[in-house]
Amino acid sequence: MGHEMSETLTQDALPASSLSPLAHRRIPRWAPAGIAVAAIALGCGVGAAAGLASHLQWGLISLLLFVGLTYGITAGVEGRRQARDRVATSLVWACFVVAVVPLYSLLQTTISKGVKVLDGNFLTHSMGGVITTQPGGGVYHAVIGTLEQVGLASLIAVPVGLLTAIYLVEYGRGKLAKVVTFFVDVMTGVPSIVAGLFILAFWIIILGFGYSGFAGALALAILMMPVVVRSTEEMLKLVPNELREASLALGVPKWRTILKVVLPTSIGGILTGVMLAVARIAGETAPVLLLVFGNQLINNNPFSGAQSSLPYYVYEQYTNGNDASFDRAWAAALVLIAFVMILNLVARGIARWKAPKTGR
Amino acid sequence: MAKRIDVSGLSAYYGNHRAIEDISMTVEPRSVTAFIGPSGCGKSTFLRTLNRMHEVTPGGRVEGKVMLDDENLYGPGVDPVAVRRTVGMVFQRPNPFPTMSIYDNVAAGLRLNGTARRKSELDGIVEKSLKGANLWNEVKDRLNKPGAGLSGGQQQRLCIARAIAVEPQVLLMDEPCSALDPISTLAIEDLIGQLKERFTIVIVTHNMQQAARVSDRTAFFNLAGVGQPGRLIEIDETQRIFSNPSVQATEDYISGRFG
Ligand SMILES: Nc1ncnc2c1ncn2[C@@H]1O[C@H](COP(=O)(O)OP(=O)(O)OP(=O)(O)O)[C@@H](O)[C@H]1O
Ligand SMILES: [Mg+2]
């Protein structure tokens, strides 16, 4: 009796096929792709049948069908634990698609509308003497403005940010460090228009300086500094303490340890953070509007007189409200995106080049 | 070159927590002294007080005297940086600088200290240190490759080469073999045998056989109880500690009856 019992039990526990107890039935490898295709087809079918005008709705139905179908099919074939695993995977994929679609469509729109007037002439001419309702003119003055304002802001914010981060990670103990951290946190949350108003009140109204690229750069530096501090802090914290101790134990002073061991080890990440901060302020419009004022002409001197900048130029052309200006706005937006992309690529290149080497 | 260390009445704290209490001992020059004792009894802490690395940890504080020949390491006006140049250290986990090549790792101590030297002189020091660490033959063809690309045992010997390149008087080693295979361990033990002709060596180890093999004198540390500070129980010739210790607790620990 007992013998028979155990025999039936073992047989039940085994899967129906003659596989070993550790293996189980799997859906074929192409199945997830197949399910995706089927879900999209079904989603479009349902959408069309229900007469939904928006393709977004079709897509959402497809996504829901995809997740649901994945669960149903794997639960039937592979069992519930596997099914949950696959649902998690397909959810991650779905979220990825949801995140990428708007990005893709933004890029695509900007490129297709931007290339219309984007040529050598556009990049090398200002708006001087151009009637806004007519085609022609360019962004040269705005590119110069952006480069100078962002460059000046970086010159101010990067050293201050780096030193602050080094202080906080390597030296900061007690009250002062806490206060600094608090203020960095507060500064992270300052809206760009507030930074602009602050400089307007302080630099232009109280101290009496005129509008200039430099005034804008001051506001941009305020926005950039906390980002640099935060990202540098995180990178410095990633440097293992053992390396600092190894250097100190060799009789290397602390400041040299920081300069020669800690910073080189984390320089890739720090530069990436700085580039991201630059990319962030390159797109700021509000401080430029308040402090740099905007200009149709080329002004190479950031320390005196109004300048333009790429985001300001986009805004200005858009408010002109005619087709020629719209074209110029899109082209300038494309230039701005390209500028930020190039910065990112450079940052990645430097990060890879400077990354600690482990190869043989 | 090698110097005698004379410790008296030394206690070390982490914040308010006293980790070791009232330790006094003498470490003879040109000899190997091993520290043994159960985990958490303060061997690493004590070792790090010998080159003022203890105070690098936030809240780290030391009371007492450490005489290096006739200079108190904790005397007024003593520069911890200068102390660490005289008393070198090798850590439990190999920690070569990841951004530097093998050559640069060995030269790091000299370069980072800003003691500028001619290239030929530096080449000589690097070769001598790598030979001293028994690593030269394995790496002489790839001195410009990253130090992190070596095996664990090679990395540890690289760290030893880096430590001896600055010509310290004393070399402190905190469980230098605990991450290594028996062959690398043997290589490092041989190396310790050679290094003691030039340096005063202190080694922390959990391996009784290793302590018996490499050391001339052995110190046994223990805790009075959980949460109590660690104390030095006894220090004596290694042979005596392992054959006929004067304290019962030492015998119990060595024979594996506790801890
Ligand atoms: N960074 C630290 N902060 C606070 N307490 C510490 C710190 N490092 C060590 N301690 C405490 O000091 C005591 C001694 O630690 P130590 O590392 O010196 O022991 P050990 O003898 O080297 O142990 P092991 O053999 O495990 O390496 C322990 O109670 C430990 O909890
Ligand atoms: Mg230890």
Automatic annotation (TrEMBL), chain B:
Q: Which Gene3D superfamilies match?
A: P-loop containing nucleotide triphosphate hydrolases
What region holds the ABC transporter domain?
Answer: 5-248
CDD domains assigned to the protein according to its UniProt record, in alphabetical order: ABC_PstB_phosphate_transporter
Keyword presence, Flavoprotein: no
- Highest taxon of the source? Bacteria
- Sorted alphabetically, which keywords does the UniProt record give? ATP-binding, Nucleotide-binding, Translocase, Transport
GO terms of molecular function: ATP binding
**Pfam families attached to this UniProt entry:** ABC_tran
Q: Does the keyword Ion transport apply?
A: no
Q: Which NCBIfam families match?
A: 3a0107s01c2
Name assigned to this protein: Phosphate ABC transporter ATP-binding protein PstB
Q: Which organism does this record belong to?
A: Streptantibioticus rubrisoli
The gene behind this protein is: pstB
